[in-house]
Amino acid sequence: MELKKIGKLLEKELDYKRFEHTKGVEYTAASLAMVHGADIEKAMYAGLLHDCAKAIEDSEKIKLCEKYGLSVNDIERSNPGLLHAKLGAYLAKSIYEVDDPEILGAIEWHTTGHPGMTLLEKIVFIADYIEPNRKHLDNMDEVRKLAFTDLDGAVRRVLKDTLTYLGEGTKAVDPMTKETYEYYKDLK
Ligand code: FE
Ligand code: FE
After folding, report:
1. 15: CA distance to ligand 2 center in Å?
2. Of 8, 20, 28, 103, which sits most exposed with the smallest number of CB within 10 A?
3. Which protein residues have their CB within 5 A of the ion that is ligand 2?
4. Which ligand is nearest to the CA of 134?
5. What is the topology classification, in CATH, of domain 3-185?
6. What is the pLDDT of residues 34-68, one digit of tens each?
7. Where are the domains of the chain?
């Protein structure tokens, strides 16, 4: 499916703020792809579709994952919001006709990352965090600069800060976020 058509469908599917965020991730991922030598079109597809399952109700997310044979662990069961990434990858393929495994991987791993991410996965992970509509966090200026100069450094920084913020709050941390940080922490 063409980017334009997907954009039209998502504009109806997502609320105004989520759609603005989605467009922000699309063009930020494209810019990062230019700087780091990734495929620009793939970055745009992954950015545009990364939150395509976000508007689905939580109980429905669990039901759909079970229906499509996607695993749901205990942490995801109590925080179904976490499922929007893997469900999004599934919908990108089944509804939005994206077959490219690189794009699907970037959608699937955009929230937690994973050890040894591909370039495209890192780009979407970071674009999701730094796109211009994002709430301005203390570390934002630094992370935005790092994103264009030292991508692994930006990944490390975002994971570290995410674990710090989430650790303090009530939101559950997906264990994969920690695993990803352990990997990137020592990567120099
Ligand atoms: Fe997301
Ligand atoms: Fe997002």
Report:
1. 13
2. 8
3. 51, 128
4. 2
5. Hypothetical protein af1432 (1.10.3210)
6. 999 999 999 999 999 999 999 999 999 999 999 99
7. 3-185
Name every residue whose Cβ is closer than 8 Å to that of residue 126 and which is 6 or more positions away in sequence: 32, 143, 147, 151, 154, 155, 158
Q: 128 C-alpha vs ligand 2 centroid, how far in Å? A: 5
Per-run averaged pLDDT (10 residues), the chain, 188 residues? 97 97 98 98 98 97 97 91 96 98 98 96 98 88 97 96 72 84 89
Report the distance separating Cα 168 and Cα 184, nearest Å: 21
Name residue, tokens 């929230």: 111
pTM of the predicted model over 0.90? yes
Q: How many angstroms is it from 67 CA to the middle of ligand 2?
A: 24
